[in-house]
Design goal:
Elements: E1 2-5, H1 11-19, E2 23-26, H2 37-47, E3 50-53, E4 72-75, H3 83-97, E5 106-110, E6 113-117
Parallel strand pairs: 1-2, 1-3, 3-4, 4-5
Antiparallel strand pairs: 5-6
Helix pairs in contact: 1-3
């Protein structure tokens, strides 16, 4: 699957996804750091990439409709998270990815659970 990591995620997350055979680009690697959220969303849509971010603004399904995208995945980490916690959440996401696709969906990944907004609930 094709992913774009937002600038708020480090290289370790990208390494984990790459090690599982996914195509990964980063906001920082494409020189898009500091861009407006709408620009990031539009680039992800035009490239056919699922966005992975820590930015809760992307949970606004009116501004960033999942139905028009390859998916939006928001990692909701606790305050003062460790790198191990973030890695665990990426692995949790990858395990769920083996069962269903984030295409046209908003996924909220929290420690020990994933909430999914299905496409038909956006209408």
């Amino acid at each position: 699957m094709k992913f774009k990591l937002d600038e708020n995620l480090g290289t370790r997350c990208g390494e984990i996804l790459l090690s599982q055979g996914h195509d990964v680009e980063t906001v920082r690697g494409q020189g898009l750091q500091g861009s407006a959220d709408q620009r990031i969303y539009d680039v992800c849509c035009s490239e056919g990439r699922c966005l992975i971010t820590l930015d809760l603004d992307f949970a606004d399904v009116v501004r960033f409709p999942p139905l028009s995208s390859r998916g939006i995945v928001i990692l909701r980490i606790p305050r003062n998270p460790s790198l191990a916690m973030l890695e665990q959440m990426i692995h949790q996401f990858l395990q769920a990815l083996g069962q269903t696709s984030p295409d046209n969906r908003l996924w909220i990944v929290e420690p020990w659970r994933i909430r999914v907004r299905e496409p038909d609930s956006d209408s």
